[in-house]
Amino acid sequence: MLAFAAGDAGAFDRLYARHKGTVFRFVSRSLPSKADAEEIFQDVWMKAIEARARYEPRAKFTTWLYAIAHNRLVDAWRRKGLALVPLDAGDEDGRPAIDPPGDPGDDPYAQVSNREAMARFAAAFEALPPAQREAFVMKEEAEMSIAEIAAATGANEEAVKSRVRYATAKLREALDG
User: Fold this and answer.
1) Which of 43, 38, 33 is nearest to 65 (CA)?
2) pLDDT tens digits, 16-58
3) Domain that holds residue 137
4) 98 lies in some domain
5) Beta-carbon neighbour count of residue 165 at 10 Å?
């Protein structure tokens, strides 16, 4: 980001290429509408571009970027009311948004078992309180540390640890169930 602020446009291209997938998944799993997710995703990157001259590396770039994403999501939730995204929702072509775990091959029992486990996981994920869901996605999807999540969300580290721990326990219970 410092190189981009100094005028290296290629540095932004590298940042975008490195983080676009995880940021988009984070945003899209937090909003019910693909159009809203795309709008917020673009807004996150626009905010990053606008802030290049003011950027100060007080934390990792990902922490700073996810703080922007978190704030944009909070704004969207306030404007439209909080609505969570079902994990098993398909895309516009009817394909599942998230594939079931494993490669069941031609074993129908394994296919049904994996589908049922994914449905239980999706239901448990949707039922998570928004703060737990957000912390879990940042930890697992973006591979952020507890300290980075705390910095990005404005929560203290103990609260983040609790959110991740409770979310993980609820999701494990759903998969075991």
Assistant:
1) 43
2) 999 999 999 888 888 777 888 899 999 999 999 998 888 888 8
3) 2-85+128-176
4) no
5) 13
Residue 118 lies in a domain: no
pLDDT at 86: 47
Q: Which of 171, 85, 83, 86 is nearest to 132 (CA)?
A: 171
Helices 157-176 and 146-153: angle between axes, nearest 10 degrees: 110
Go through the chain and tell me how many residues it has. 177
In this structure, is residue 161 part of a structural domain?
yes
Q: How far apart are CA 35 and CA 71, in angstroms?
A: 18
Number of domains observed in the structure of the chain? 1
24 vs 76, higher pLDDT: 24
pLDDT at residue 145, rounded to an integer: 92
| E strands, 50-126, in order | none
Could you tell me if residue 23 is inside a domain? yes
The beta strands (E) that lie in 20-154 are given as: none
93-112: burial string, b at 16+ Cβ within 10 Å, e else: eeeebeebeeeeeeeeeeee
User: Concatenated DSSP letters for 78-129?
Assistant: HHH---PPPTT-B-TTS-BSSPPSS--TT-HHHHHHHHHHHHHHHHHHHHS-
Token pair 């103990």 in the structure block, residue? 158
